[in-house]
Amino acid sequence: MAQKSILLTLLKKITAKMTGIPVAIFFALILGSIVGSISWLFLFLVQWSYDVFWQQLPHSLIHFFNSNYGISEGVVNLSYPAAVCTIGGLVIGLLEFKWGKRVVKFEQALGEIKQTGTYRYHKLYQVLILALIPLVFGGVIGPEAGLSCVIAGMAVWIADHFRNLKSKYAKINANICEMSIIAVLGSIFGAPLFGFIAPFDNGKQSDLLKRQKVVIYLTVTFSAFTSFAILTKKIGGLEGLPRFETIDWQSGDLLWSIPAIALGVIFGIFYSLADNLSNIISRKFAEHAIILPIISGLILGILGGLLPLSLFSGEAQMTDLINNYKTLGAIALFLIALAKVILCPLLYNTGWRGGNIFPVIFSGVAIGYAFSLLTGMPTVLAVTVCTASITGYIMRKPLMVILLLLLCFPIDNLVFVAFAAVIASLVPELPHKSVNK
Fold first, then answer.
1. How far is C-alpha 106 from the chain's CA centre?
2. Residue 22 placed within a domain
3. Element of type H or E holding 80
4. Nearest 10 degrees: Cα torsion 317, 318, 324, 328
5. Is 392 helix (H, G, I), strand (E, B) or coil?
6. Pair 40, 168 in one domain
7. For the chain, how many structural domains are there in total?
């Protein structure tokens, strides 16, 4: 308590002579640095757990069982994911049964913030654990959902204590929640403008979209992005989305863009079908909350043993996909993408809470490589169009897709990204069976 009082007193002295925009910018710089650092630490822990549990431990087990019992490497590679993912499902089921559903997608978090003007921060360690466990156990989910919930809760805690210092802080809760989620998205995806636009790309003009707020939101976004990038460069960790080379195409290659967009949309429809079906299942068997994540974990483990790249959210495995897509072949790439788009909503709706952005982008890249191998369409052009179309169809927000993928592809790819994302987002979405999560 003494340390907390000292910290609040120090902040009060620093901001005592600051009013209006200066104090808001100062706070945005501090908040952005904290958010970027926490986001980096979270992803660093995810990467460390991947190295330990999915690289070092399997190799040790292969050597142990082969040397002592004559069990082949193939048997271990098939059985290990099934065992680990099933155990992960049990852990997730027990924790959710005890603590409840604490992790939601960042869009839902933003919706709660806009509706209530605040966000829950009671027992944030539970949110952190529930966000981290599915990623550790190989879940096909992204980190942005869990991180957004953790950071939003932390930001409200800070805002509540600032509010106690001076009355001028009384109305900042909703703003600071949005600022924190913006910073998370901008830092973990390596795309600051994507995070910045997230709260505004909803078809309505937000009352927050004013000149002063734009300055503050840009400040927190780039502060988070900078601290995340510095830590990643100096210490290491996940580096976000991949970067592709410039497209080398001819006018005749553009004819393939339409079927490539259609293919991305088809896989997006598979995602929606899996989402609807798993929603129905989770609602029907809601009383079996512990069993559902175990069953989905077993399914994940079996598919992961057969198709290793179908495990995880995809950001750490993207390099393997880029380097080995020719060896994998078109059929395997299509199967990996199909597994991803089915597993991602299935896992989320059965307790493995997390985001969908990284898995969807990974699926789009795999689809693009497969389409290029089958048709001869220039590789990067196929990857660009397929990734933008599946992401545009699922996210339904073409501007966010454009800003998200802008750092993946060179600027001269922008017209293809925009065209595919807009066309795909205009395709009617399947009726959604909504379930309160």
1. 9
2. yes
3. helix 73-99
4. 80
5. helix
6. yes
7. 2
